[in-house]
Amino acid sequence: MGVVRRQINKHASRLRREMTDAERALWLELRNRRLLDYKFRSQWSLGPHVADFCCLAGRLVVEVDGSQHNENVDAARTAWLKANGFRVIRFWNNDVLTNMEGVLAVIAEVLEARGKKEKQQEEDPHPSPLPQAGEGAKGTRRQRPSPGVAQ
Hints:
Elements: H1 10-17, H2 21-30, E1 41-46, E2 49-55, E3 60-65, H3 71-83, E4 87-92, H4 93-98, H5 100-123
């Protein structure tokens, strides 16, 4: 997973000012670490794309789609984001406006699953631990001759 450097996008600042009603409603629930203490960013530039909402710590992008979204453009953006280590979840505007609790539950579930996966990797950082016997095990180490001592 590579580092994604933020590129300044003039389009993103306009999008932040002109959020849809659904985006504004979801932003009120996600901002200021209100969901599981994860920091979300609104209309965040990721490479050549602008994500509606992005949680860098959770490697999660949340998109709120209305009728204006183009499936081909969305597919290309999703492929780029996935290739850069982000999980993308999408909700329709109507779902956000009529079922906010359900939307937040899905986002929380994804973040918790990501957190559990990372915690498991911290506990067992190497998928194949090195064997305990063999070179370097007690009693099998060769003694090095002292400098200047002939053998």
